[in-house]
Structures are given as structure tokens and as C-alpha cells.
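ligand=(R)-mevalonate
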Amino acid sequence: MNNAVAGFSKLSKKEKINWIVNEYFSTPEEAHNIIRNYWNSDEKLQQLHDEFIENTITNFYIPLGVAPNFLINGKNKTIPMAIEESSVVAAASKSAKYWATRGGFKTTVIDTEKIGQVHFTFNGDAQKLEVLFNLIKPKFFSETKSITKNMQLRGGGILDIQLKDKRNLLANYFQLHATFETKDSMGANFINSCLEQFATTLKEEAQNADLEIEVIMSILSNYVPNCIVRAEVSCPVKDLTEKHITNPQDFAERFVQAVQIAEVEPYRAVTHNKGIMNGVDAVVLATGNDFRAVEAGVHAYASRNGQYSSLSHAKIENGVFTFWLEIPLALGTVGGLTSLHPLVKLCLEILQKPSAKELMEIIAVAGLAQNFAALRSLTTTGIQEGHMKMHLNNIINQFEANEQERLLIKTHFKKIAVSHSAVVEFIENLRK
Ligand code: MEV
């Protein structure tokens, strides 16, 4: 079969769908129905989604849930989460409830600096380049005035621009390394527009000074180690007691050890941090932010000391248990999808229209809460008990159980450990 197609993007939506269903499905009408079932009946809303990307054929849903009762810096918050993994929202809610009676979450935004670079090559006298750079540095600011004007009114703008000699890494490689404050916007367009103007200015001025430079590319960095937020929970060890924590000292020690393992062992660190990102990504997505950017930046940060390590830390000091994390988060609460996507707007309303800094705090808390829930289960009952309970619905749905079967399955597995095979066996017996 030849699946290549010419001029696909120029086809109408209907033609694109027809091509897909006829090319890849033995029962095109069935595929057509699935695609159509996920359309929104509100044409304007559907058109909005169609136009987010190219070649849209339908919508891809994931659930939007909420985790209430998060006490953050003394204020109560309900956190919206867009995620398909069954146990995540339940775990967040449990952590929120647990810590709400133990002082809640405390957060601090440590810094909000963003970074962008113009990468270029220069094969000449580096001192001459430096002299030129220092001479034209004010021009980088003046020639971006039309781009920075509004950002400056909001208190942001270009913080600094440096020339960096990177020839120890790559032949003839230099950079303009620029730092930015973008306030409540994530700032990707702002930063990239500034960088492209820097590149134009640099090229022109180098040409005037008879220096031959070649700009390779201008782009923001998603590595933002100076755009950092910290979230923390803390309470006397004795207050950790609850249903599954009958010996709080023992629990606290095991918990700290579990974190220490993730600090020193990359195989564990990746899974440990994945648990944190369950919470982080779900809120990043619900608030219309770029989860790929956040993921890339967070994992680079987790490797900043040369080995991939835990993003969270824990200690017991003077009878007090403290658990915290620090993560880089470049987020926006204005611009991008925030005013375009109705559900993003709704989620930001639920969060009481946070500033980008407040959103950094909320998302760090979601990550810490998720990590706490995972480690609490892992160091006490094991992860499968809660996980499989939540997954039971998925298995039931897979087997298209009817109402009566559902009730019987749920009642049976209230008392018995859920495993995929046990549920399958139970359903098969029911249907015999
Ligand atoms: C599952 O999505 C996340 C966990 O594996 C995280 C962890 O192991 O810490 C439970």
C-alpha cells in the first residue's frame, strides 16, 4: 500500500477525514463515527479547536478533574488537573486533605528569570568581537524598543545580554546569552522576537565593522534554572500519624530513606520525578501551558550536578519532618492559550486568576503532593493497592460490563486485592 499523499494540508477537513478512513480502515464508516463522536456540536467551538493546529480531524479528550482542599500559604485552593492516569487526582486530593490539617503547603518563588540565546560562529580575533559587542550593547536594547515597550509597562523586559565565547565546546562558536523578565506571560514569542532582532543588529554591526559572523539560530532556552519555585510541607513527626501510619517515627525514617534513594540512584530518581510530574503536568496542561517545555526544563534541572537526581528532598530535624521540592517552571497566565481555550479560562478562574508566580507555586504544590502520596503508599501499603482500585474502572470498561456486572465486580473487589487477572477471571466466571 502506498500511504503517501500530496497536498494533504490543502484538502478540506471532510476530504482529510475521508482519506484517512479509506486509507487505513477496513470499515471506514466505523472509523468515521469515532471521529465524528468526538466533535463538538457547537460549530464555533469546534472551529476554534480545528484552528489550533494543522490537519485537525477531531478532538482528543482527556479528563479534567479537580483536587480540592489544598491549603497553600494559608489560602484554600481547588486545583484543576487534566490527566488520564486513574490514580493521580485521587492521590492529590488525599495529600491535600492530609496536609491541610498539618499546616498546609508553604511556597516561595525564588526567581523568575528566562533565557534566550543567539548562536553564531565567528572565525576572527575574539577581542575585536568583544570590543564590538560592548560598543553595540545599547543598540540591542534600543533596536528592540518596539517589541519591549508593552512588556516594560508590565514591569518586564530584557534584563541583560552577554557575549559568551564557547570555542572550548565547538569551533568558532559564540553566543549572545540574554536574560528576560516576562511577568505573567510565558514569554516565548516575546523572547524569540527580541532574539531575532538581536541577531539582525549583530549581523549589521559586524558587517559595518568588517567582522565576519554567521548567525546559526536564535531561540529561547527551555532550561530555566533561575526560574525556580520551592514548595514545602512540614510538621512534628508525631503528627504524621494516620490510618496507615501507626508508628510516625518509623514512617518518617522510611520516607526520608526513600527520598535519599532517589537522590543517589538515577533508576529510582526517574520514576520518583515521574510521580512529581504526574501532578505538575496535569496542572500545566489544564492551565494551557506548554508541558513539553516544562518537562524538558525540569529534567535538565534534575541533572544539573552531572547525575540525574531527585527533585524533592526530606529530612527529620529536632523531631520535625520536612519534605520539599524546588523546580524550574516557566509559565504564563496571560497570552498563549490562556484567553483562547474556554477550559483553560475556566481552570484559571477555579484557581482565582493567579499571576504566573502564583501558578508556579500551585503547580509546585501539585508536584509535591503527588510525590508525597506516591512515597506514602510505596513505604507503607505498596503502590498497587490504591493504584489498582482506581484502575478497576478501566478494566470494567475494557470488558464493557453492564450495570449489574459493574455492581457485582465493585462489591467483590472492595474486600479483595485488585489485579488485572483477578478481575478478568471474576468477569469470565460471571458470564459463564
Ligand atoms: C506512577 O505514575 C508514579 C509512581 O511510580 C511514582 C513513584 O514511584 O514515586 C507511583
